[in-house]
Every structure is written in C-alpha cells, then in structure tokens.
Specification:
Radius of gyration: 20 Å
Helix content: 40-55%
Order of helices and strands: EHHEHHHEEHEHEE
Length: 170
C-alpha cells in the first residue's frame, strides 16, 4: 500500500464530497457510489504512483476517471456558460489555498464567479438539435459536415458514426 501526501488526501476528499453532493441531488445512493469510487481511485492512483501518491499523481488519475459531474452523469447536461467559465479560468486561475510549498486549488464548489456579460443580457439561448448517422470517412464525411455547416448547424459532438449538431432558433 502506497503512502499519500496530506495534499493528495485532502484533494481526494474534496473530490469525493463533490461527487457525493451531486449524487444526492440526483437521488442516487451516494454512500455506495463513494465506497466503490474511493476504492477504485485509490487502486488506480497507487498502481500509477508506486510508493508515494502525490497531488500530481492523483490529478493524473482523476483526469482519466472524469470530473465529479462526469462521474455522476451531470456532465451530459453541460450548459454553454461552463465552457466560457473554463476558458476564463485557464487565463486567470482561481486563487490557491493551503500552507507550505504545495498549495491545493480551491474546489470548484467554493469558487465564486460573476456572470459573464452575455449571460446577463441573454440568460437562455435556445437551440434546435439534429442527430445524423454519417457512415464513411474522409472526403464524404467532410462534404456532409460542410453542407450542415453552410445551413447553420454546429457540430457539438460525435459518438461512433453519430454526429450531433445544434443551431440557434430563429
């Protein structure tokens, strides 16, 4: 069994608190989810890190597992402002808390943010969505995607051969 730094242990507990809160909001059995998730994360982190699980090693493990929102399925309802928030946070990261040399970023649940300008003016953009199965690759797929783009459709995501588009409602 590997040793954990205090920073990595605190970070894991903060991550699990977020998962627990999101799971409870959805009516899931948070205790069961946390029990299984904690064991899985500990095994993965210890296997990857070896003797000492540092904060960096834990973050690497968690990046493969996903955010608390992704783990609980909340990420599927991702709102457009979240992407803007992430971009803004990358430019100026949230203040760090902690003592000594290793500082731990404040958990996202404790970061207070001001609404972005366009959120105040237009709080809810409305979209129509389209799901298209495009079989093939290369030029054929490019041609089809460009046709949808000319019609105002924006590619949101893909899953195997399924392509999901959205465009603002008029």
């Amino acid at each position: 069994m590997a040793e954990w730094t205090p920073e990595s242990r605190d970070y894991l507990e903060g991550y699990l608190r977020q998962v627990s809160a999101l799971a409870r909001q959805q009516g899931d059995d948070a205790d069961e989810i946390l029990s299984e998730l904690r064991g899985h994360i500990q095994r993965e982190a210890e296997d990857a890190a070896g003797v000492m699980v540092t904060l960096d090693a834990l973050r690497k493990t968690l990046s493969g597992i996903g955010t608390p929102e992704q783990v609980t399925g909340v990420e599927a309802a991702l709102m457009p402002w979240r992407e803007k928030l992430r971009a803004a946070e990358e430019k100026s990261p949230a203040p760090r808390t902690g003592q000594g040399v290793a500082a731990v970023p404040a958990p996202p649940s404790q970061v207070v943010r001001k609404p972005l300008c366009n959120e105040r003016r237009n709080p809810m953009n409305r979209y129509e969505y389209k799901c298209v199965n495009i079989i093939g690759a290369g030029e054929r797929t490019t041609r089809i995607l460009n046709e949808y783009g000319k019609d105002g459709w924006e590619l949101v995501t893909t899953c195997l051969t399924w392509h999901y588009f959205k465009r603002p409602l008029a």
